[in-house]
Amino acid sequence: MNHPRWLSRKLVALLLAAVGLLTPSRAGTLPPPNRPGNFDVDWHFLGGEVPGAEAPAFDDADWRVLDVPHDWSIDDLPAQPPAVDKSGNLPAVPYVGPFSPDAPGGPSTGHVLGGTGWYRKHFTLAKADSGRLVSILFDGVYMDSDVWLNGQHLGNHPYGYTPFAYDLTPYLNPPEQENVLAVRVRNASRNSRWYSGSGIFRHVTLTLVAPLHVPLWGVAITTPQITPQSATVSVITTVTNGRAGDCDFTLQVRLHGPTGRVVQTGEVAEHLAANRQAEVPMNLEIKYPERWSPETPNLYRAEVTVLVDGQPVDGTGSVFGVRTLHFSGADGFTLNGQPVKLRGACVHHDNGPLGSAAIDRAEERRVELLKAQGFNAIRTSHNPPSPAFMAACDRLGLLVMDEAFDCWEKGKNPDDYGKYFHDWWQRDLDSMILRDRNHPCVILWSIGNEIPDKVEASGYAAAQELVDEVHRLDPTRPVTEAVNQLEAGRRPWTDTSRVFSFLDVGGYNYRPEQYAPDHQRFPHRIIVGTESFPLAIYDCWTLVENNPYVIGDFVWTGMDYLGESGIGRADLAPVPGLGKWPWFDANCGDLDICGFKKPQSYFRDVVWRRSPLEIEVHLPVPPGQTEHVSQWGWPTEWPSWTWPGNEGQPLQVAVYSRCDAVRLELNGRVVGVQNLGPTNHLTARFEVAYAPGELRAVGLVNGKVVARQTLHTTGEAKKIRLVADRRTIRASRDDLAYVTVEITDKHGQLVPNADVPVTFLVSGVGELAAVGSGSPNRPESFHGRTHATDHGRALAILRPFGSTGTIHLRASAPGLSSAEITVKATD
User: Fold this and answer.
1) Cβ neighbours, 10 Å, residue 151
2) What is the pLDDT of residue 83?
């Protein structure tokens, strides 16, 4: 059956096309010779086992038509009655949206379904493409994919996070005859410890090249010598001769500076035998190079052209940066000669309400949000990210620890990568290194996370092989691994010595107490906190600041993610392990899944000296009860002084500051004064009888007021406010507009306790791609027209159809004044 949302989109497109407002579909169009082409649009999709769907003649006319990136696990479940228990009663929480309490992965994967899905795409080549080599590149398919072209099996790729390509040339039909590409994806029930998503969740690219060409990832760029006056740029280009005879050719390289101006060129004449491949090195000099750093992310671009008899036959390009990296136990990490401490965030790959679909703007926005919160580094836990994410880190200036695997030979789930590691590790590791080696944002390669067999013979052997392979492909960056405690603490930490002996930088998960003793035993060891608890931010960051050999700390996590449900929850009952249904979100991030700021982020602002003072008020706890907080969690507090129904009741107020002391005032009256410092972790706690009005904290240094922070009681919810991150976006399926929905009182103040259902209506040249809120335990559809706010906020994501024009969003809720906003989609 066709999907109703697709039908509405197509109907709008047809109507607009009828009046000349929409350009024709890109279906059937292919890139010009030697240029990669977007192959994302108009795939036919059907979930489930479909015998014979690889056959070209198979009838897929009734399948849903969609664009990739696509994640079927985040789609709404088919309409069905709720399951009943053995007594015949309905469950307390029925099936909602994409979530099911009976999902095989349970809380680990966010109570969503995986299974099997099929994709099919029909395309033709033009006569002008005759004689060219045609290949298909998948940036990521989760997981265990098989691909057929015209009924011929091209191959299987188990890992969901690494890119892979197939040569289509031998199985293509003649030009102007239809070809059928079929992809089967099998997401087994238990193959991940977090939400993975399902399907072709990253881009697909079709490439047509001449027989003499530069293969995929065939350009390697380094900057081996850099001074303020000049930089040597080493460009090593691999060239493949697929011709029947030998060939003389010229390789030309043009370097473009950050403004786009050509700053250097070079060329070399070469000879290559038939059906051979060779590396062609070239060194070029840039005068007065502009360095890449998080503060100045200056990017250069190398354009590589292959010419025969003076005519271009192939071309490619790569972005790079001019910067130096140095790591040592004595000096820590220096970038361009300057010491840098890594203010790090671990992040998973999903985009919240969009699931794992790696739409370019969604990937870019995550990077923007994290940098805006003061992070300067990201650990891609625990797998290679999308190319769009890496490009955003280059462009916006975030340092990256690029991580390969969550397990090696010994898996963590019955159907995870452990089943494939022995046969696939080198291919998958190579694809990550070759794809990402030119990115200036990458400063560290990580070969694994919390490897179960790390202190076994197989683990030692694997570590040595992995490190050697990384150094072979890229000798310019160090290698690390995230090492956790051994066998739940049953073996001494000192048994990790051999594990760390393979590594250039030692990664420590949740073991800051080992930094000092390990430094005493191994004074040359470079240490980075690859994972830390949010509650430990002060202690961990103090160790980073006070010890050169500790180069940074990566909190788990920078942003909430789907799956590992409730790992960061707080409750009135003990909180061991994962949260049960209806928890679907990890709830341990500085930002929630919509990108809204959470309580621990305000404390981090103080620890990192980004804010002089912050106030948090704890949710009232019933008398005689105690709140239990997970190690990955945070107390249930909020920067709010709106607590109706609690008048006269004592509330716990936390004031965070690096000031000498803080004074708390309620409606102009002093509640109390407390000194601050390392002994109380920059935290003053007060008990305040709630009265509406104004709660103010004042920061004092040497008795003088240097900072103020005020919380106001808001009125009743009256209005909806819509705020778009950008009012003008590109008319592209790769772009998005994120619209924040806020519930306000009559004065325009956000009402922080307003959890109301908001209904959305979209018209124009775009669609409602997803809706959501920050709630981690109220599962709702991300694709419905109505979604409840959380702490007074929700999010609506608009996506263009691909044509220019306007997208109009209207939001309404019972008893509230509605709101409207228009976003322009332009070329």
Assistant:
1) 13
2) 47
| pLDDT tens-place string over residues 457-512 | 999 999 999 999 999 999 999 999 999 998 777 889 999 999 999 999 999 999 99
Q: Which CATH number covers residue 201?
A: 2.60.120.260
Mean pLDDT of 329-334: 96
**By the 8 A CB rule, do 142 and 160 touch?**
yes
As a whole number of angstroms, the distance between CA 544 and CA 553 comes to 7
Which pLDDT score is estimated for 44?
A: 97
Q: Where are the alpha helices (DSSP H) in 522-644?
A: 537-546, 599-607
Cis peptide before 826 (omega within 30 of 0): no
Angle value at C-alpha 149, between 147 and 152, nearest 5 degrees: 85
pLDDT tens readout for residues 733-762: 999 999 999 999 999 999 999 999 999 999
Are residues 259 and 189 part of one domain? no
In this model, does residue 405 exceed pLDDT 70? yes
191 within domain boundaries: yes
**Does 158 lie in the same domain as 43?**
yes
Give the burial class of 117: count Cβ atoms within 10 A of its Cβ; 0-12 exposed, 13-18 middle, 19 or more buried.
Answer: buried
Residue pLDDT, tens place only, 531-566: 999 999 999 999 999 999 999 999 999 999 999 999
Q: Residue 561 to residues 191, 407, 497: CA-CA distances in angstroms?
A: 17, 20, 33
Bridge partners, residue 78, by sequence: none
Reported residue count of the chain is: 827
In a domain, 172, yes or no: yes
What CATH number has the domain bearing residue 549? 3.20.20.80
User: Residues of 240-257 as b/e, b for ≥16 C-beta within 10 angstroms?
Assistant: bbbbeeebebbbbbbbbb
Listed in sequence order, the residues at least 6 apart from 161 whose beta carbon sits closer than 8 Å to its beta carbon are 140, 142, 349, 383, 384, 385
Helix, strand or coil for residue 399? strand
Q: Summarize the confidence of residues 371-399 as an average pLDDT.
A: 98
Could you tell me the sign of the dihedral formed by the alpha carbons of 503, 506, 510, 514, in that order?
A: positive
Tokens of 455: 């202190």
Q: Domains in the chain: how many in total?
A: 5
Kindly state whether residue 342 falls inside one of the protein's structural domains.
no
Of 654, 689, 712, the domain-final residue: 712
- The domain boundary, picked from 712, 737, 754, lies at 712
Q: Do 287 and 270 fall into the same domain?
A: yes
> Parallel, antiparallel, or unpaired: how do β-strands 115-123 and 179-187 relate?
antiparallel
Q: Quick one: 204 exposed, middle or buried, by C-beta within 10 A (0-12, 13-18, 19+)?
A: buried
Query: Does some domain include residue 111?
Result: yes
Examine the domain organization and report whether 645 and 498 are in the same domain: no
pLDDT at 431 over 80: yes
Total Cβ atoms within 10 A of residue 424: 15
Cα dist from 313 to 135, 236, 306, whole Å: 17, 19, 6
DSSP symbol at 31: P
Query: From CA 179, how far away is CA 208, in angstroms rounded?
Result: 15
Are 202 and 67 members of one domain? yes
- Distance from C-alpha of 672 to C-alpha of 674, rounded to nearest angstrom: 7
Answer for the pair 536, 512: CB distance below 8 angstroms, yes or no: yes
The whole-angstrom separation of Cα 406 and Cα 411 is 8
Q: Which amino acid, one-letter code, is at 34?
A: N
**Residue by residue, what is the 3-state secondary structure of 33-55?**
CCCEEECCCCEEEEECCCCCCCC
The answer to pTM > 0.70 is yes
**Is residue 178 a contact partner of residue 123, using CB atoms and an 8 Å limit?**
yes
The answer, yes or no, to whether residue 2 has pLDDT greater than 90, is no
217 with 298, same domain: the answer is yes
Give residue 726's domain range.
719-826
Do 453 and 308 fall within a single domain?
no
Residues 189, 261, single domain; the answer is no
Which CATH number do you get for residue 222?
A: 2.60.40.10
